[in-house]
């Protein structure tokens, strides 16, 4: 049979034939006993359609077939499918729906194969929806439109049942929800609008109810456990039957209802909230808290705040503890940094270690918590204890670690670790320049009196300080350490010189340490009247020094010297190790048996302070080398002294210490002075270049200039830490503008201090206030 | 007196230049007479050897014009004279002051005082007077600041009538604080600006971030602490 000879199929006729095929299909779907389609069946059906579409008009029935195709579905759905679903409810309804949907898809597949020819030309030509789409649309318009509400409600009910702990048919739900997705034919609109929105709303309501109960009944850790569990389950739910796109929205809802809404109440629960957890070191619960709160917007802010408050309180308590212990000390020991203060520093280090671990572990190294830790430490680390500033305490702590016979007896590694931690603490101290000064003074003592326990440690801490605070912070200290090495070499040449020039030899072993002025703390050099023997020593060294260099000036610091004397007592000769001052006083008794206080003072040419101290150490302390008349415990200007020939001690060699003058006040004064100079210099520099400047601008630029490398910390303007200029001692301040910026140390500026300096500069005619605008200043050349 | 009569007789005259000439010479004669009287008055109080009116002379002047020598009006008089040294008036200063006040007798001087007060209180003049009051206290050479006690007295004298409350509190504060033992010109001028511009006693428009002298920042802090 050729195309041309094909017999025309009449529409009714053809459709009757097709109808049989469709009915067969329906029977199969209904589960009635019906044999499957054979290939022939299929071919016949397909060809029928083909023929009816390719016939010449008016017998080309494409349009009619297209319509009938759709009508087939409509008829089937209306007569059979819909009623069968309608008569069922809840879970049964869902099952029926799933079955019918599955059937429908099969029906669409088969029918669209039969009618496939329409897809090839007719549809494209008329820009009509393809067969597949037509089929699915029928289901959507007839079944889905009517039933989606009920279906949704049934699904949500099941979900809530599962939430309450009941077992439900997850596979069923997955299939139902797949309908919502597939019915969109590529778009998620139906799923989102007809199911997801309501589901989210229901979820929110569900968890809101739960949360309102739990928050009253449960402790914070228990609540958090529940919350974490809920979130886990919801996530699980998504993976099993919800569409993956629902996950973020769903979790967000749950987090909101469980956490955001009750965040504050949860954190502030009296016996189990954040404060309590920190107090009781509940690391696990805190980790959980972090995990949960990091998910909600700004959730971590209150947590980090409470953390900060807690650490601050702990630190402040340590300060108070130390203060209380210190106030129980005896009055005369009050100025000396004692054991309690050492303990305090160690405890602060421990506190830091503990909470740094928290930040790293519980709080997963989050910047917010690093910041809280830092701010907390900055608050209490800057509180002094018993009149000693934190800067001094730290410096003393270091001294104790580094000096021989210090109170800290630790292994080398432990020392390194400790030094590392101390330097880290320094970051929190605002008066770093004060620390530097104290540290320098104590370093000088250690170096000059050979009290340094270990050179490597000395260098190591300087390296650490350099890394943390910059090279200029440590340059002087490094200079000091180098000076000693040079001094030893110098001494060797001096001894060579002496052996080469025997008549120059003063007859006494002399060791001289030459220091570079700029590096070392300033020492007052009094014009001590040296005993004749020592005068010769000084001269000899001076001559030697001239041979080495003519351009330097030597200033002798007798207050730092030590002497070894042989005391010829009646019982035996004892070697006495004393300071030069003490030695000079003792040697006076070689030519006089008895001397008065004023005679000693005149002959030595020292101040009252020094004389009282040294006489006390020789007559009222542990070793009575001199006898005092009257034999009281304190020195008074009317006392008289005699050599105590009856003195005896079992040791051949004794050291008679001279307690050092308290440096604390001087250090603070020096640092204050340096700061004032630094601020003055900065202000003048700025005004010189700007000529006219407003007050606020001037303060800002001053702060910026002084804090160029680090940032400035102040509550008014909320900057962070900063440097200032420390001016070298040997300059004379006639003209501030030519000050060289030799050193930069670190300081926290006081805005009042800057204002005060401006006023001072006005009085000194460097600046004036503008006549018309009192907030402006002019530079006076 | 004679002069005036002869001038008035001449008013009928048509020759105006003659009249002005006469008037001028008459007034210059009048003014030189006035100057003479002023000078005589000066010498009646002046110390014979120094040629200046000294503190004693000022005291007797004060009793003559019936004003206490601690009264602010004497200070105003000194201002009018542009007197340089506290407690002393030179002839030049005396002439300057009395001429400006048009007073050549003690009576006239006394009567000129109320007008002088009004003149000083005019805002344009007051600032100048206020600054003058401070400078007048700088008695030593190269002195730049005045001690707190004197400043307190001066404040009361100069600003007391206008800003009683502020001045009283400020004086109380200055006496108990220990940051400053002396006050300089800049701070002094700051006090006036403060009384003038800042609302009292709430200090609502006071901003310590501006260039107010630090002593005033501290004063406001102290006041606020007191008020709580």
Architecture overview:
The complex is a heterodimer of chains A (781) and B (228). Chain A is mostly helical. Chain A is built from 28 helices and eleven strands. In chain A, α9 crosses α13 (283-293), α17 runs parallel beside α19 (432-448) and α26 packs across α28. Chain A is elongated. Chain B folds into two domains: 33-121, EF-hand (Recoverin, domain 1); 127-227, Cullin, PONY binding domain (Recoverin, domain 1, Orthogonal Bundle), CATH 1.10.238.200. Chain B has a two-stranded antiparallel ribbon with strand order 1-2. The N and C termini of chain B lie far apart (69 Å). The relative contact order of chain B is 0.07. Residues 1-14 of chain B have low confidence and may be disordered. The interface between A and B is medium-sized, with 16 and 14 residues. Chain B: It holds the Pfam family Cullin_binding. Chain B: Residues 9-19 have a biased composition (Polar residues).
Keywords for this structure?
heterodimer; A: mainly alpha; 5 helical Cullin repeat like; 3-stranded mixed β-sheet; 3-stranded antiparallel β-sheet; 11 strands; about 60% helix; B: about 230 residues; mainly alpha; Recoverin, domain 1; 2 domains; two-stranded antiparallel sheet; 11 helices; 2 strands; about 65% helix; disordered N terminus
Summarize the structure.
The complex is a heterodimer of chains A (781) and B (228). Chain A has 781 residues and is mostly helical. Chain A has helices spanning 11-30, 39-54, 62-86, 90-114, 116-126, 131-163, 170-182, 189-217, 220-240, 246-260, 263-267, 274-279, 283-293, 300-327, 339-360, 367-381, 390-402, 412-426, 432-448, 455-469, 471-500, 532-548, 580-588, 597-604, 608-619, 664-690, 695-706, 751-763, and strands spanning 562-568, 573-579, 594-596, 626-629, 640-643, 653-655, 692-694, 722-726, 743-747, 767-769, 776-779.
